[in-house]
Amino acid sequence: MRLDGTQRLVVAAVAALVGLSPLSASAVQKGGSIAGPTGPARVLRFDGPGGGQDYSTAIAVAGDGSRFFVSGYAYGGLARGDDYTTIAYGPRGHRLWTASYNGPDSNIDEALGVAVTPDGDAVFVTGYSFGGPSTTNDATTIAYDGATGAELWVARYDGPGHDTDVGVDLAVAPDGQTVYVTGASIGDDGMLDVLTISYDSVSGEENWATRSAGSGGASDEGLSIGVSPDGARVYVTGYQTGTTVDMLTVTYSAATGTELWSRTIDTGGDEIGKDLVLAPDGSSVYVTGYRSGAPGGGSRPLACLSGRAGVGDDYVTVAYNAATGQRRWIMNYDGPDHDCDEAYGIAVAPGGSAVFVTGSSFSIASDSDAATVAYGTADGAQLWEARFDGPDHLYDTGDSLVVSPDSGLVYVAGLSSDATTDYDFMTLFYNVTTSDLVRSERYDGPGQGFDAPNAIGMHPTGRLVYVTGGSLGSDLNVDFATAIYPT
């Protein structure tokens, strides 16, 4: 059995909110090649066994820098559909192992998130896996031995609605003993609830699972998860539906799953939390996403880049006291044309003095720019903004970012359109203090068409940056692609 139309729509809606780029024929266009000023030291490509569409969605780097992991899904052929696919590499790109997971129905199994224990001994992936007509998609989390790729355990979660359940993001406790997953799960009412699960990292035994639903009886979802440095609390952001869609941030006891505090942002329109990060000392949690702009704002009668029907979205970034949930500050970023501005990623300086967000910001003169904004963590004061407009003034967006260990540079990964090369990987190197663009890199794959990164990681020394996503191959199918940049 294959997914029916309704099931595919639910999964597609979740994937759109997660931020995955669509893999459709319409997204693939003919183009030429373009080289960056320096170029990656190496590009690692993986073409799955079925010769179809393969897409890397997430990256995690071992704390000792001995290896890094990319995960996503690869087409296994008509008999298998998409399979979870996880690859381990040495720090400079030597492939160590590849592991795949084909669910019980040999159907669609797609990994969306990856995390690794601090010592790199175990790696975990989560996503959704079709279990058959009785459960449809289950939120499925898998543990692998970090050194060998041997499968350690598989945990499948089927919610009370016995319908679509999705793991979107996951995080590992500082002591490596517990892994936490967040996502969405259809309940008895047929609507998506925020789902958060705690697993024993060694055995895969479920410690607890909690569900959170808004008052509006519609869709709710967790999109990003983090753990406090002391391992005592788990933080989730996403959205819940009341009268409107509201940005949700909720905190649980790591030991019991008991809700400690929950906060929403509702400014009269729709608000979605896309990503969160904890202060290095654990005192604050920072959340970013986007909110509806002022009524009547915006000048373009088109959908925003997220697919939402309205125009006028703004970045919204919030700081909360991590222990109490008291809001410390909230900042809005409205681009030059007061149109669609949507933040997707957030990172904090290792010293904790600044937080950085990136996303897409519309401009009439240059279409969508990759806009990165820096805020002081003490009071949220905007320190700088940097907008990147590609060579042909087309669609450019930031997706994710990391900060160097010395807090000297912030690295932004996203995609950038070119009239001849379609979408390319884009990686930007900014000076943290001045916002000067120190360096920019582009990668156009051998298919000279659709290339879109989903995640960025960094070697703990700060000497290597890893950018991963999907890239059109010479056979006109999308492959895993991971670019390694020396810094």
Q: How would you describe the overall organization of this protein?
A:
The protein has 487 residues and is mainly β. It has 2 domains: 166 residues, no CATH class; 221 residues, Methylamine Dehydrogenase, Chain H. The strands form 8 sheets. Strands 1-32-31-30 form a 4-stranded antiparallel sheet, with no helix packed on it. It has a 4-stranded antiparallel sheet with strand order 2-3-4-5, with no helix packed on it. The longest helix is centred in the N-terminal third of the chain and has 14 residues. It is globular.
Task: Give the topology.
Blueprint: H1 5-18, E1 42-46, E2 55-61, E3 68-75, E4 82-89, E5 95-101, E6 109-116, E7 122-130, E8 137-145, E9 151-157, E10 165-172, E11 178-186, E12 192-200, E13 206-212, E14 221-227, E15 233-241, E16 245-253, E17 259-265, E18 271-278, E19 284-291, E20 314-321, E21 327-333, E22 341-348, E23 354-363, E24 367-376, E25 382-388, E26 396-403, E27 409-418, E28 422-431, E29 437-443, E30 451-458, E31 464-472, E32 478-486
Antiparallel strand pairs: 1-32, 2-3, 3-4, 4-5, 6-7, 7-8, 8-9, 10-11, 11-12, 12-13, 14-15, 15-16, 16-17, 18-19, 19-20, 20-21, 22-23, 23-24, 24-25, 26-27, 27-28, 28-29, 30-31, 31-32
Outline of this structure?
The chain is an all-beta fold and 487 residues long. Helix content is 3%, strand content 53%.
